[in-house]
Design goal:
This protein is an alpha/beta fold.
Length: about 325
């Protein structure tokens, strides 16, 4: 493969921040054992930060963003992978799309250790919708280790229409939980109910500041993709002995809370950090997600497709909290 190909490149120079489509050659790609023709690369919140001049996530420039990708192996010096194999490539935001070129490109070169083979019959789009479930499955694992079970009461998902939030609502409801969903989008009720939510809360309610250290006990557990004031709300309203899986920061980092939920209700705040999760555990989570066959019925509801040209618009909308579901960039029209 020698022909130039298209990629979306962000750059920061003395003249300022730029982003747009460029023609690259194979020699522009970073080292790695496996060359992949990219079918799709999703827009994660962290990708949106990479595409923002104030994002403070990119660790090198120029950079092709795209934390995750799925596609077909074109060349491989890693004996585990052969040309024609369908794979997903991700190191969960450690380097790919952050300090080495990622998936917003017709071709990507990656280390073999980043690759997860797609089981027969699982399409690229399906794989990338399921991959948003890995941090959710990790969060659920931690919650269940801390005694969460469907009979203990409802579980709240915050940032519920986001890529991870959508998977959280879907996965929890399929595992038998009563799921409440918090969203900033007043028109998202039908979408969230379709995914499995039985109660919808407004973002205003779940991000309201309060001087009260404790409020009525409501949630046996929660998956929080929002952070900030929402994490403080969850601490005030989690039931005795309940737990919060803190995954994200879409609503802000700082929060004001007291120790009373911890020492009077024994609640637990469980931090989830996928980049530092050991590779064998990530592989287990990926395999766990690929076994969630009933989630596949929701792929067309959750996923939408965009092209390389759409990336500036979509990433800006994401940072403004205006996107929904799992947005997949299709770098090539092929
Ligand atoms: N811990 C880890 O290892 C890990 C792994 C992957 C991702 N993450 C983090 O998880 C978070 C979600 O990622 P994602 O890719 O799912 O992003 P996403 O698709 O943009 O979803 C975030 C959702 O949060 C809500 N939101 C956005 N802005 C908000 C604001 N100002 N206040 C309150 N809610 C707001 C929106 O949902 P509603 O409109 O429905 O409220 C939005 O759709 C990000 O912070 C990401 O960095 C963490």
């Amino acid at each position: 493969m020698t022909a130039p190909f298209q990629a979306f490149v962000v750059n920061q120079t003395d003249d300022g921040f730029t982003m747009g489509i460029q023609w690259l050659n194979q020699r522009d790609l970073p080292p790695g054992e496996v060359l992949i023709q990219v079918a799709y690369s999703p827009v994660n919140y962290k990708d949106a930060l990479v595409c923002s001049p104030d994002g403070r996530v990119a660790r090198t420039y120029p950079l092709v963003p795209g934390l995750e990708l799925a596609g077909v192996v074109v060349e491989s010096t890693d004996p585990r992978f052969q040309p024609g194999d369908a794979v997903l490539a991700s190191d969960f935001g450690s380097t790919q799309g952050v300090s080495r070129h990622g998936g917003y490109s017709e071709y990507a070169r990656v280390p073999g250790d980043f690759l997860f083979p797609l089981p027969a019959g699982l399409g690229f789009k399906q794989a990338l919708v399921l991959s948003a479930g890995a941090p959710v499955a990790m969060g659920l694992r931690q919650l269940e280790k801390n005694d969460l079970a469907p009979q203990r009461g409802p579980v709240l998902v915050t940032g519920a229409t986001g890529g991870i939030g959508s998977l959280a609502v879907s996965l929890l409801s399929r595992r038998g939980y009563t799921v409440a969903a918090s969203t900033g989008k007043p028109d998202a009720s039908d979408y969230l109910r379709q995914l499995g939510a039985s109660e919808i809360l407004s973002r205003e309610e779940t991000s309201a500041e309060s001087n009260r250290p404790l409020e009525a006990e409501r949630w046996a557990g929660s998956i929080d993709t929002v952070g900030g004031a929402t994490l403080a709300y969850l601490m005030r309203t989690t039931k005795q002995g309940g737990a919060i899986a803190a995954i994200g920061v879409a609503g802000g980092a700082a929060f004001r809370a007291t120790v009373f939920p911890l020492i009077l209700r024994g609640i637990k705040v469980l931090g989830i950090d996928m980049p530092s999760t050991p590779l064998p555990v990530r592989r287990e989570l990926w395999e766990e997600m690929t076994r969630e066959a009933t989630l596949l019925n929701l792929v067309d509801t959750i996923a939408s497709e965009v092209s390389l040209e759409d990336i500036p618009r979509v990433t800006q909308a994401m940072l403004g909290g205006q996107t929904r579901g799992r947005i997949l960039v299709r770098p090539s029209e092929q």
